[in-house]
């Protein structure tokens, strides 16, 4: 008995799917039209004939759906959740809707449980988390120290990471206190960036062109003036988006290295074409976006 | 949207309206090294620009000539600032090219020397450029001293050094040259009066007068 | 120190059957269709002076070219040709006041005086395009197109991108290799004196054209 119900249910679902396909076909045919060539009159007649055919398929499928639905039996009785079924017998007006709502919320929570069971293995594939709490164990949270590292440690890490990139120069200064290092990045005649740190965490990034001044009038490093050039204003915005993406207080060295690798991929800002459209310019701009995982160049409008 | 006016037309218009400062009103004198300090004290009291420290300058000047062609020669003075401020490097210091015309003769009642002077700022390769053009260096000297300003007037107290051999600078005399000058466009003769009045205030210490260059 | 980005200069041949101003009109329509907007006018002009014969030993002659560019309004460029080197002097505008003093020593030839390129200046993003019509003593000589990319200062890094941009409105007249002047300097920082030297080269070509005719 149960298997028959399941079979007829699946047949009915198949019929519904076919109906939907044929309706889609009708609309597609109406928009795309007849691709055969020929003079106008015959074309129009052919178009009308084909359209009628598709509409006939739709009516047939609808008929199938109605048949299979009629074969299905109505589910027996009301759905009961054990003893809570007796709630429905309460004659008080206020309480009468209670049972219906109970059933709805039960169904909803069951669905949530099912979906989250599917989602957990997919999300668990990303090992780098921002927060620290594991689902079950509730130990005391490890104190996060990446925002208050001693300056020599920060300098040493920056030097090691900076040394691995050929063509990128880092120069560190501390005009705003010992915890916040200001690093000026010089990328081989292409661009200059100024990154402000708090310990080992990146707080602010600004990217400017190679010929723009990095110092204000009184000799301090200029952190705020945006670039004069459209392309570098766009790259600055993207750099700030990437800064949020690569933010990982639990693994500061790893996130810093990934971020600097991302910036290093801008070395060929003006010479690499966009991977999606193949050309170098779109709206007079070079590909200003670098994919956060693959580091490939895309135009602002080409990144999907 | 106005049409672009070429630079030459702009310069001609400026000269016509007499706003290009190309006349120099000048008075010169000298003071012995031993009395220089008294003079500087007085100037510090009179001048505008002394806050904490007096402005010093050190310039190396080369004199180049071109010609003679049909009896005419052209002399240019190329000046290079030698005192390097912190933060600047030597290749960024400004060079100027100066043309000084003959002093205007005739008006004995004018209190100062009046001569045409054009100062052009340029890139450091000016020496190479001028020697390619055919200019030859006559001589060079170095001036080291102090600068004061009063209104539009510039007061210089400096010592002249000469090099017999390369980079071996020796003072030329035992005194400092004192110069009072104003750069103004044509026709602003009232400036000469101001220069003379200021010179009066320095009278017992240094005698500033208009030098007759023909008599040198 | 402000560097102007990278510029490249090219003559544009007249379109078949159209006069100079009509060709400029066609280019204007093409470039405004791409999205550029007119941001003013520009003038680059050149005056030439020749040294007096008795000035230099061996009767060699030097040619002094004095150029102005509205892109650098406070500067005057002087380029000396004829000798072993070709130094470029950049000075402020009073240099023009100095030139009449040299009138006997360096004279201007009455036949070939002023040549200039004058026209509209267009801006599109970080690109600046100048379409100039070249005239000498009032007669039209040709069309010079200057394309400048402000954000990059090394020619080798962005040449292909600039070439793509130029092709989009100039068509196939754009050569795919760097102009010969830039080829030897493609990895060095570009400066406005390089632009001016390219203009001088083109002006000299235009001057030679009239002599040939």
TrEMBL record, chain A:
<dbReference type="GO" id="GO:0016592">
    <property type="term" value="C:mediator complex"/>
</dbReference>
<keyword id="KW-0539">Nucleus</keyword>
<comment type="similarity">
    <text>Belongs to the Mediator complex subunit 27 family.</text>
</comment>
<keyword id="KW-0804">Transcription</keyword>
<protein>
    <submittedName>
        <fullName>Mediator of RNA polymerase II transcription subunit 27</fullName>
    </submittedName>
</protein>
<dbReference type="GO" id="GO:0006357">
    <property type="term" value="P:regulation of transcription by RNA polymerase II"/>
</dbReference>
<dbReference type="Pfam" id="PF11571">
    <property type="entry name" value="Med27"/>
</dbReference>
<keyword id="KW-0805">Transcription regulation</keyword>
<dbReference type="GO" id="GO:0003713">
    <property type="term" value="F:transcription coactivator activity"/>
</dbReference>
<dbReference type="InterPro" id="IPR021627">
    <property type="entry name" value="Mediator_Med27"/>
</dbReference>
From TrEMBL, chain B:
<keyword id="KW-0539">Nucleus</keyword>
<dbReference type="GO" id="GO:0070847">
    <property type="term" value="C:core mediator complex"/>
</dbReference>
<dbReference type="GO" id="GO:0006357">
    <property type="term" value="P:regulation of transcription by RNA polymerase II"/>
</dbReference>
<keyword id="KW-0010">Activator</keyword>
<comment type="subunit">
    <text>Component of the Mediator complex.</text>
</comment>
<comment type="function">
    <text>Component of the Mediator complex, a coactivator involved in the regulated transcription of nearly all RNA polymerase II-dependent genes. Mediator functions as a bridge to convey information from gene-specific regulatory proteins to the basal RNA polymerase II transcription machinery. Mediator is recruited to promoters by direct interactions with regulatory proteins and serves as a scaffold for the assembly of a functional preinitiation complex with RNA polymerase II and the general transcription factors.</text>
</comment>
<dbReference type="GO" id="GO:0006369">
    <property type="term" value="P:termination of RNA polymerase II transcription"/>
</dbReference>
<comment type="similarity">
    <text>Belongs to the Mediator complex subunit 18 family.</text>
</comment>
<dbReference type="GO" id="GO:0003712">
    <property type="term" value="F:transcription coregulator activity"/>
</dbReference>
<protein>
    <recommendedName>
        <fullName>Mediator of RNA polymerase II transcription subunit 18</fullName>
    </recommendedName>
</protein>
<keyword id="KW-0805">Transcription regulation</keyword>
<dbReference type="GO" id="GO:0016592">
    <property type="term" value="C:mediator complex"/>
</dbReference>
<keyword id="KW-0804">Transcription</keyword>
<dbReference type="InterPro" id="IPR019095">
    <property type="entry name" value="Mediator_Med18"/>
</dbReference>
<dbReference type="Pfam" id="PF09637">
    <property type="entry name" value="Med18"/>
</dbReference>
Automatic annotation (TrEMBL), chain C:
<keyword id="KW-0804">Transcription</keyword>
<dbReference type="Pfam" id="PF08612">
    <property type="entry name" value="Med20"/>
</dbReference>
<dbReference type="GO" id="GO:0016592">
    <property type="term" value="C:mediator complex"/>
</dbReference>
<dbReference type="GO" id="GO:0006357">
    <property type="term" value="P:regulation of transcription by RNA polymerase II"/>
</dbReference>
<keyword id="KW-0539">Nucleus</keyword>
<comment type="similarity">
    <text>Belongs to the Mediator complex subunit 20 family.</text>
</comment>
<comment type="function">
    <text>Component of the Mediator complex, a coactivator involved in the regulated transcription of nearly all RNA polymerase II-dependent genes. Mediator functions as a bridge to convey information from gene-specific regulatory proteins to the basal RNA polymerase II transcription machinery. Mediator is recruited to promoters by direct interactions with regulatory proteins and serves as a scaffold for the assembly of a functional preinitiation complex with RNA polymerase II and the general transcription factors.</text>
</comment>
<keyword id="KW-0805">Transcription regulation</keyword>
<comment type="subunit">
    <text>Component of the Mediator complex.</text>
</comment>
<keyword id="KW-0010">Activator</keyword>
<dbReference type="GO" id="GO:0003713">
    <property type="term" value="F:transcription coactivator activity"/>
</dbReference>
<dbReference type="InterPro" id="IPR013921">
    <property type="entry name" value="Mediator_Med20"/>
</dbReference>
<protein>
    <recommendedName>
        <fullName>Mediator of RNA polymerase II transcription subunit 20</fullName>
    </recommendedName>
</protein>
């Amino acid at each position: 008995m149960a298997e028959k119900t399941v079979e007829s249910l699946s047949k009915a679902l198949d019929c519904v799917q076919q109906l939907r396909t044929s309706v889609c076909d009708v609309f597609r045919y109406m928009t795309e039209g007849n691709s055969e060539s020929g003079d106008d009159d015959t074309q129009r007649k052919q178009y009308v004939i084909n359209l009628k055919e598709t509409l006939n398929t739709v009516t047939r499928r609808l008929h199938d759906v109605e048949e299979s639905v009629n074969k299905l039996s109505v589910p027996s009785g009301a759905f009961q959740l054990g003893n809570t079924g007796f709630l429905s017998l309460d004659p008080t007006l206020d309480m009468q809707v209670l049972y219906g709502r109970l059933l709805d919320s039960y169904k909803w929570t069951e669905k949530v449980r099912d979906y989250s069971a599917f989602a957990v293995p997919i999300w668990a594939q990303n090992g780098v988390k921002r927060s620290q709490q594991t689902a079950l164990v509730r130990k005391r949270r490890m104190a996060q120290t990446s925002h208050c590292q001693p300056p020599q440690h920060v300098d040493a890490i920056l030097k090691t990471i900076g040394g691995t990139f050929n063509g990128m120069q880092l120069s560190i200064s501390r005009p705003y206190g010992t915890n916040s290092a200001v690093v000026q990045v010089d990328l081989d005649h292409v661009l200059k960036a100024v990154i402000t740190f708090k310990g080992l965490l990146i707080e602010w990034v600004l990217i400017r062109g190679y010929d723009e001044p990095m110092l204000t009038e009184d000799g301090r490093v200029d952190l705020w003036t945006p670039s004069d050039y459209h392309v570098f204003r766009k790259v600055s915005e993207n750099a700030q988006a990437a800064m949020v993406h690569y933010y990982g207080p639990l693994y500061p060295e790893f996130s810093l290295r990934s971020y600097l690798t991302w910036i290093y991929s801008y070395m060929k800002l003006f010479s690499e074409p966009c991977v999606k459209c193949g050309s170098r310019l779109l709206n007079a701009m070079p590909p200003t976006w670098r994919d956060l995982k693959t580091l490939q160049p895309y135009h602002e409008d080409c990144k999907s | 949207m106005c049409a672009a006016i070429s630079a030459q037309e702009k310069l001609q218009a400026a000269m016509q309206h007499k706003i290009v400062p190309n006349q120099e009103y000048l008075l010169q004198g000298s003071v012995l090294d031993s009395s220089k300090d008294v003079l500087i004290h007085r100037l510090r009291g009179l001048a505008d620009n002394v806050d904490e420290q007096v402005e010093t300058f050190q310039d190396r000047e080369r004199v180049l000539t071109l010609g003679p062609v049909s009896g005419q020669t052209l002399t240019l003075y190329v000046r290079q600032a030698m005192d390097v401020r912190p933060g600047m490097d030597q290749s960024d210091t400004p060079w100027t090219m100066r043309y000084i015309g003959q002093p205007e003769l005739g008006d004995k009642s004018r209190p100062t020397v009046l001569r045409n002077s054009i100062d052009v700022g340029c890139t450091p390769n000016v020496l190479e450029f001028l020697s390619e053009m055919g200019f030859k260096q006559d001589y060079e000297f170095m001036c080291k001293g102090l600068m004061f300003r009063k209104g539009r007037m510039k007061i210089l107290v400096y010592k002249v050094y000469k090099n017999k051999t390369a980079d071996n600078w020796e003072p030329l005399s035992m005194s400092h040259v004192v110069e009072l000058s104003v750069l103004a466009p044509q026709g602003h003769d009232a400036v000469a009066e101001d220069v003379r009045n200021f010179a009066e205030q320095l009278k017992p210490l240094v005698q500033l007068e208009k030098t007759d260059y023909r008599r040198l | 120190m402000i560097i102007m980005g990278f510029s490249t200069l090219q003559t544009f041949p007249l379109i078949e059957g159209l006069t100079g101003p009509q060709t400029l009109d066609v280019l204007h329509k093409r470039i405004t269709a791409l999205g550029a907007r007119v941001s003013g006018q520009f003038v680059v002009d050149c005056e030439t002076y020749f040294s007096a014969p008795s000035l230099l030993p061996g009767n060699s002659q030097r040619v002094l070219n004095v150029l102005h560019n509205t892109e650098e309004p406070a500067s005057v460029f002087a380029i000396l040709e004829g000798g072993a080197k070709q130094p470029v002097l950049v000075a402020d505008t009073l240099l023009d006041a100095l030139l009449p003093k040299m009138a006997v020593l360096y004279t201007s030839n009455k036949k070939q005086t002023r040549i200039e390129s004058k026209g509209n200046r267009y801006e599109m993003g970080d690109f600046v395009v100048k379409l100039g019509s070249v005239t000498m003593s009032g007669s039209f000589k040709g069309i010079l197109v200057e394309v400048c990319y402000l954000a990059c200062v090394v020619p080798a890094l962005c040449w292909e991108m600039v070439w793509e941009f130029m092709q989009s409105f100039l068509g196939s007249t754009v050569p795919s290799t760097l102009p010969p002047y830039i080829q030897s300097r493609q990895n060095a920082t570009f400066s406005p004196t390089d632009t001016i030297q390219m203009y001088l080269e083109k002006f000299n070509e235009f001057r030679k054209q009239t002599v040939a005719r």
